[in-house]
Amino acid sequence: MKIHIPKIYCFIDNLNKDYIDNLEKDVAIIYRNYEDKLDIKKLIDFNNKCKKKKRYFYLANYAKIAVKLGLNGVYIPSFNKKINLIINKPKNFLILGSAHTLPEIKVKEKQNTNCIFIAPLFLTKKSNKYLGIANFKKLANETNKKVIALGGLKKSNLHKIKILNIHGYASISLFKKN
Predict the structure, then answer these.
(1) Which of 40, 50, 114, 139 has the fewest CB atoms found within 10 Å of its own CB?
(2) Closest CA relative to residue 62, chosen from 108, 31, 99
(3) In angstroms, rounded to a whole number, what is the distance separating the alpha carbons of residues 99 and 107?
(4) pLDDT digits (tens, 9 = 90+) for 159-174
């Protein structure tokens, strides 16, 4: 059985259930908040709402909790280099990973990710370092994993990712404005 890998991802840092209603139905959600302690009850409630809306939901950096709560998968950030993250994972459990460099891509491959988010593609508000189209393509060609573009995506540059020949894209700010 082939695992479904969404093409569009929205990063969120709070579990506002109403936020789900304002997104296109094919947008998967990644909860990424490294500041606050995980609230398991809120995660369960949010996951239940996602299931009702037939929306994929991933938790950043807590693989065992994501498995235990029956989420669709886990997102492993670039700073997480642990290789044995999950012992027993369900069949349809997706492992997403992010990378900024070739060595980080190789780590994500060893972590057995299903796809790799390569970032930042474009200039972002948080950093003036970005890959650009040419460097992004070079990195994307270094892996056989499905690639997701991340970083600096706006409505005005979203059309440019079509030339990259990748699986999809992810954003934080692109969805906040809509």
Answers:
(1) 40
(2) 31
(3) 9
(4) 888 889 999 999 988 8
- Can you give the pTM of this predicted structure? 0.93
Q: Residue 126, SS3?
A: coil
In degrees to the nearest 10, what's the CA dihedral of 37, 177, 162, 7? 40
Cis omega before residue 120 (within 30°)? Answer: yes
Q: How far apart are CA 16 and CA 5, in angstroms?
A: 24
Tally of residues, the chain? 178
Tokens of 51: 């299931």
Give residue-wise pLDDT tens across range 11-70: 999 998 888 888 888 999 999 998 899 999 999 999 999 999 999 999 999 999 999 999
Name the token pair of 26. 């094919």
Which residues, 6 or more positions from 78, have their beta carbon under 8 angstroms from its beta carbon? 97, 98, 99, 100, 104, 119
CA distance 117 to 98: 4
Q: How many angstroms separate the CA atoms of 58 and 9, rounded?
A: 10
Complete DSSP assignment for 56-103: -EEEES-HHHHHHTT-SEEEE-TT---S---SS--TT-EEEEEESSHH
